[in-house]
TrEMBL record:
Organism per entry: Hyphomicrobium album
GO-annotated molecular function: ATP binding; ATP hydrolysis activity; branched-chain amino acid transmembrane transporter activity
Domain ABC transporter: 6-238
Keywords: Amino-acid transport, ATP-binding, Nucleotide-binding, Transport
Name of protein: ATP-binding cassette domain-containing protein
């Protein structure tokens, strides 16, 4: 078996005296879409932030592309080829779409801005139409496109997506997931996806994990978890949006 692009081994993370992650281990193989599903408050976003060092893992190790990044500063991690589209989008509302995208390229040290801008606006033509518009005036779906676009401006080896469907209309959710699938299929982009929308996420995933109260309780292929009675009862009944 090939060494995974991202590997978490026994990760424990805390906020003060509260333990948020309990010995989490998972692998993200290169070229695959791996999804982590779970209820709100399960610890999914904490795991995403721990990969980038905020909070720091109290126990366990995180390896990316053959390197131990557990104690590495966040900005150095980003320059290794990880990029994140965080929960809640967190774009720069007072900056234009183009300025937001430029920030994504420059933060990761990618200086070929024009080429990456052409790449991102081909993926999201709506952003090309809005280049000089302030980010804060975009619709929710457009802001999510901008957050993902900003992340891929750095041409990452691994794209981390935290709740990309949150608060979006069903049609926009479908478009976002189609883009994720296309980036993986056409460009071989490795994706680690954290989602509450289990139905869409599991249909997309090569491999999937379920998190409950900061611990991994189930794992398998996306199709295996889609068919799991336990997963269907907890996350899928009435959830096909």
């Amino acid at each position: 078996m090939n060494t995974p692009l991202l590997s978490l081994q026994g990760i424990t993370a805390c906020y003060g005296n509260i333990t948020a992650l309990h010995g989490v281990s998972l692998d993200v193989p290169a070229g695959q879409i791996v999804t982590l599903i779970g209820a709100n408050g399960a610890g999914k976003s904490t795991l995403m932030m721990t990969i980038f060092g905020n909070p720091r893992a109290r126990d366990g190790r995180i390896h990316f592309d053959g390197r131990d990044i557990t104690d590495m500063p966040t900005h150095e991690i980003a320059r290794l080829g990880l990029a994140q589209s965080p929960e809640g989008r967190r774009i720069f509302g007072r900056m234009t779409v183009e300025e937001n995208l430029r920030m994504g390229a420059e933060f990761a040290g990618n200086r070929d801005y024009e080429r990456e801008l052409a790449h991102v606006t081909a993926i999201f033509p709506r952003l090309r139409e809005r280049l000089h518009q302030r980010g804060g005036t975009l619709s929710g779906g457009e802001q999510q496109m901008l957050a993902i676009g900003r992340a891929i401006m750095s041409r990452p080896k691994l794209l981390l997506l935290d709740e990309p469907s949150l608060g979006l209309a069903p049609l926009v959710v479908k478009q976002i997931f189609e883009v994720i699938a296309d980036l993986n299929a056409r460009e071989g982009l490795t994706v680690f996806l954290v989602e509450q929308n289990a139905f869409h996420a599991l249909r997309l995933a090569h491999r999937a994990y379920v998190m409950v109260n900061g611990a991994i309780t189930l794992s398998g292929t996306g199709q295996e978890l889609l068919a799991s009675p336990e997963v269907r009862a907890a996350y899928l009944e009435g959830g096909r949006h």
